[in-house]
Amino acid sequence: MLQAFLDGAVFGASSGDGLPRVVCLHGWRRTHDDFAAVGAALASDDVASLYIDLPGFGATPPPAEPMGARGYATQLRPLVAAAAAAAGPIVLVGHSFGGRVAICLAATSPASVAGVVLAGVPLVRSAMPTSQVSQRYRAIRRLARLGLVSPARLEAARKRYGSADYRAASGVVRDVLVTVVQESYEPELAATSCPIDLVWGADDTTVPVRVAEAARSIAPTATLSVLVGVGHLVPVEAPGELADRAAALLRGRR
After folding, report:
1. 104-158: per-residue pLDDT in tens?
2. How deeply is 17 buried, as exposed, middle or buried, from its count of CB atoms within 10 A (0-12, 13-18, 19+)?
3. Under a CB-based contact definition with an 8 Å cutoff, are residues 104 and 77 in contact?
4. CATH 3.40.50.1820: which residues of the chain?
């Protein structure tokens, strides 16, 4: 059942009895539903959790202005702080875009976060696959920066040559996407003091394993596990693995 958090600013769902000890954050163009099976697995292990719709997705309204993952973390920090104040430091589980937000929260709220489980997260921009943007689109963008192409023509080119995520987005959410694809999280990885479990699908072609390997080389507390036969949607394809990792971090073991 859909629930409201942060005085109705954020919506999502919860599983298990008692106070939530795990907070799950979904990927781009996804919703809290991706974590329903993770929540059920945690509940069977007597761990309560909540999984929310990030601003601009599902039932949660978009942010008032464009922001990156760090801005999303600022918006969600009161929710994490309240959960930690009620029941002790929590574990964050983040997939893809939600993992960007999770690592920003962990780096800036060390007293509230006991550990982080990340799956398929574009943490290190330099390790991501090279963009396949057409040469024609690159030329149009250069001309636009010089004032030689109108905004209308540039927008038409974006819709034609841009990614599926870009074409599906609109308004402030599109501006959020433009911001986050330029971000990289080396500072947050280096600053995070709690354990970080990187859990990657071996068949993830969206965010390949090499991104996780690059992140592990930066984060002093990170470990990496690669799941054979699993792709990018780890919360849907391997929910039990994420639940086990989160429960282990809560209990101080890895």
Report:
1. 999 999 999 999 999 999 999 999 987 655 667 778 878 888 888 888 887 777 7
2. exposed
3. no
4. 3-129+183-250
25 within 8 A of 98, measured Cβ to Cβ: yes
Closest CA to 249 of 225, 226, 227: 225
Burial of 186 (0-12, 13-18, 19+ CB in 10 A): middle
Helical axes 97-108 vs 69-87, angle rounded to 10°: 60
Pick the CATH number of 3-129+183-250 from 3.40.50.1820, 2.40.128.460, 3.30.413.10, 3.40.710.10: 3.40.50.1820
Whole-prediction pTM value? 0.90
- CB-side exposure of 31: number of CA atoms within 13 Å? 11
pLDDT digits (tens, 9 = 90+) for 42-91: 999 999 999 999 999 999 999 999 999 999 999 999 999 999 999 999 99
The burial of 33, by beta-carbon neighbours within 10 Å (0-12 exposed, 13-18 middle, 19 or more buried), is given as middle
| CA 95/CA 246 separation, integer angstroms | 13
